[in-house]
TrEMBL record:
Gene3D superfamilies cross-referenced by the UniProt entry: Penicillin V Acylase, Chain A
GO BP field: proteolysis
Family: Belongs to the peptidase C69 family.
Record PANTHER family: LD30995P, SECERNIN
Protein's UniProt name: Dipeptidase
Stored InterPro entries: Peptidase_C69
Assigned keywords, A-Z: Dipeptidase, Hydrolase, Protease, Signal
Signal keyword on record: yes
C-alpha cells in the first residue's frame, strides 16, 4: 500500500468518524405484522450528557482497492486501529442506509473481565460501518460479527437493534476478555407480529440453538461462560445469556427493564404482573424478550412511547415529591441520593432531558428503497422533539441538523438542537402550564408531516417512472425544507413562551394576541401562583409555622 493512499484514507476516516457519545439509550421495536401499516419500525433515543444532536451523513462511494479505514471510538474520537476499506459503500443518513437497513443500540456494560483494550471495533463504529456495507439485516449481523472476530471488540456489553424492510433482530454482544480476540454474541429475530424493546439491560435469556432461521450465535457463547464459572449447568440448552453476562441488579431492573415494561404494558395490560420485578425484585419472573400486542401499533404509538414518563403507573414521575409545584417528570442527575443513611432513587424514564437525538426508523417494503426508508428524526428530549421525515436516499443534511452548526459549547439560532434545548429547558421549570402550549404545536407539525409523506411518496413514485434521476434531489429538497421550517417554528414557539410566562406571571390573550389596554400597554397579567395541592404540601410539612399569618384579634 502506498503512503499517499494510506494518508488519504486516514484523513477521510477521521472526517467520517468524528467523536460522538451515546450512553443509557432506549430502543422500541415493532415487527411488520404488528404495525398498522405493515412497516417495520424501530426507535432510538441517543441519551448522553455530552452528545450534540446532529444528523450524520456518509455518502455512497466507490473506493477502489488497497485502502485502509482508520477506526475511531465513537464516544471519544480515540483512534483504535485500521481495517480494510470496502470497495463500495452505501449512502447512510443517521442510523439508516439507502437499502432500508437501520441499526440502533443500548449499552449494558456487563462483565468487566471481558473488556479488551486492544480491540479495534467499538459499538458505534460497528453501527455506521455496517450500515455502509449491508443490504439487509442479516448481512449487517454478519458484517458486525465478522469485524469483531477479525479485529477485536473494544466496547462493553451492548444490545443492537438491526432491521430492514422485512425483519428485525436483536443482537447482544460482549467481548471475550484481553486474552481472546472477538466477542460472544447471540442474535434473535423478533417475530413479525410482535413488539420488543431494550434499554441498557441484556434481554436475551435462552438461546434456541436449533432454530437456524431465527437465531444466530457465536460458537463459544456457552463455553466462555463455563470457563469463567458463570454457567455450571450440564446442558447447553439451559444456558441463559442474560444471567451469565449481565445478571440483574436493582439498577438494571428499576432504571432499565422498567422502561421496556412501560412500553409493553401500553399494548398488554397483563404486563402489570411484572411490576415487582421492574421495581427491583431480582427473584421475580423476568419479562419476555417480545410480546404480541393487543392491537396494531401506529407510528404515533411509537412517538408516544418515546415520550413516556411512566404515566398511569406506580412509577409515575409526576406523583412523587420530586415533581414539585408544576408536576415535572424530570430529575437532575445523579440518579440516587442519600438522606439520613437511607438511599433513594430518581426514576429513569424513556424520555429524558440529556438526549442528543431521537429517531424512528420506518422501513416500508411495498415501496422502492429510494422512497421506502424514512428516518423520523428529531433532537434533544423526545418529549419536546419534533420528529421530521428524512428519507434515507437524501444526499445532503438540512442546515439545522448539520454538523458544525453549533456544538455543545457554542449556541446557534439556526441549530435545531439548541432551539429545542432552549424551549425544553424553559418547560422543565414550569412544566404543566407550558406543555399545554408546546404539545399542540408539536402534534400539529407531526400530523402535517404524516400527510406530507403520503403526498411526497406519490410524487416520488411518479418521478421514479418518468425521471428517476431526479428522485433523490426531490426528496432532499423536501426534507431540507421541512427540517429548517420546523426549527424556525420552534424558535417562534420559544419566543412566545418566554413572553407569555415571564417572571412567574401569565399574560392574557385575546384573538390570538397578547391583550393590551388600547394605549400600547399590556393589561395586568394573571398571577396563577401554585396549585392548591402544592400549598397544602407546604402547610402540612411541619416546617411552615413561620409563614403563618396571625389572625387579627377582634376589638
Amino acid at each position: 500500500m502506498k503512503q499517499i493512499t494510506f494518508l488519504g484514507a486516514c484523513a477521510l476516516a477521521c472526517a467520517l468518524l468524528l467523536p460522538q457519545s451515546s450512553e443509557a439509550c432506549s430502543d422500541l421495536i415493532v415487527g411488520k405484522k404488528a404495525s398498522a401499516d405493515g412497516s417495520v419500525m424501530i426507535s432510538y433515543s441517543a441519551d448522553s450528557h455530552t452528545l450534540y444532536g446532529d444528523l450524520v451523513h456518509y455518502p455512497a462511494k466507490a473506493w477502489g482497492k488497497g485502502l485502509m479505514l482508520e477506526v475511531h471510538e465513537w464516544d471519544t474520537g480515540k483512534p483504535l486501529g485500521f481495517i480494510p476499506q470496502a470497495s463500495v459503500t452505501y449512502n447512510v443518513i443517521g442510523n439508516m442506509n439507502e437499502h432500508q437497513v437501520a441499526i440502533t443500540e443500548s449499552t449494558w456494560g456487563g462483565r468487566k473481565e471481558l473488556s479488551d483494550p486492544k480491540g479495534i471495533m467499538d459499538y458505534g463504529s460497528l453501527i455506521y460501518i455496517a450500515l455502509q456495507r449491508s443490504k439487509s439485516a442479516r448481512e449487517a449481523i454478519r458484517t458486525m460479527t465478522d469485524l469483531v472476530r477479525d479485529y477485536g471488540y473494544y466496547s462493553s456489553g451492548e444490545s443492537f437493534t438491526i432491521a430492514d424492510k422485512n425483519e428485525v433482530w436483536i443482537l447482544e454482544m460482549i467481548g471475550k476478555g484481553p486474552k481472546k480476540k472477538g466477542a460472544v454474541w447471540v442474535a434473535i429475530r423478533i417475530p413479525d407480529n410482535a413488539i420488543s424493546a431494550h434499554a441498557n439491560q441484556a434481554r436475551i435469556h435462552k438461546i434456541p440453538f436449533g432454530d437456524k432461521e431465527n437465531c444466530m450465535y457465536e460458537k463459544d457463547v456457552v463455553k466462555l461462560a463455563r470457563e469463567y464459572g458463570w454457567y455450571t449447568g450440564k446442558s447447553d440448552k439451559d444456558f441463559d445469556f442474560q444471567k451469565a453476562y449481565n445478571p440483574y441488579e436493582f439498577s438494571g431492573l428499576r432504571a432499565c427493564e422498567a422502561r421496556v415494561w412501560s412500553f409493553f404494558r401500553t399494548f398488554d395490560k397483563g404486563m402489570d404482573k411484572y411490576t415487582k420485578h421492574i421495581q427491583g425484585d431480582i427473584n421475580e419472573e423476568p419479562m419476555p424478550l417480545y410480546i404480541v400486542p393487543d392491537r396494531k401499533v401506529t407510528l404515533d404509538d411509537v412517538r408516544r412511547g418515546m415520550r413516556n414518563h411512566y404515566e398511569g403507573t406506580p412509577l409515575s414521575m409526576t406523583n412523587d415529591p420530586g415533581a414539585g409545584a408544576y408536576k415535572v417528570p424530570y430529575r437532575w442527575r445523579p440518579m440516587t441520593f442519600k438522606v439520613d443513611g437511607k438511599e433513594y432513587v430518581n426514576e429513569r424514564a424513556i424520555a429524558t432531558q440529556q438526549t442528543g437525538f431521537v429517531l424512528i426508523a420506518q422501513m416500508r417494503n411495498w415501496l422502492p428503497d429510494e422512497i421506502g426508508g424514512i428516518l423520523w428524526f428529531g433532537v434533544d428530549d423526545a418529549n419536546t422533539a419534533v420528529l421530521t421525515p428524512m428519507y434515507s436516499a437524501i444526499t445532503s443534511v438540512p442546515e439545522c441538523y448539520r454538523r458544525g452548526n453549533g456544538d455543545m459549547t457554542h449556541f446557534s439560532w439556526t441549530s435545531a438542537f439548541w432551539i429545542h434545548n432552549w424551549v425544553a429547558n424553559m418547560a422543565y421549570h414550569r412544566y404543566e402550564p407550558m406543555m399545554q402550549d408546546i404539545r399542540p404545536v408539536q402534534t400539529a407539525l407531526e400530523s402535517s408531516y404524516d400527510a406530507l409523506v403520503k403526498a411526497t411518496d406519490e410524487y416520488a413514485l411518479e418521478l421514479m417512472k418518468n425521471d428517476p434521476a431526479k428522485v433523490k434531489d426531490y426528496l432532499t429538497g423536501v426534507c431540507s425544507k421541512v427540517a429548517n421550517e420546523t426549527t424556525a417554528r420552534w424558535k417562534q414557539l420559544g419566543e412566545y413562551l418566554i413572553v407569555k410566562y415571564m417572571d412567574g406571571n401569565v399574560k392574557k390573550e385575546k384573538d390570538g394576541q397578547f391583550e393590551t389596554n388600547g394605549y400600547g400597554q399590556i393589561v395586568m397579567p394573571n398571577f396563577p401562583g401554585y396549585s392548591q395541592e402544592y400549598y397544602e404540601s407546604i402547610a402540612r410539612s411541619g416546617e411552615a409555622e413561620h409563614l403563618v399569618v396571625p389572625k387579627e384579634e377582634k376589638k
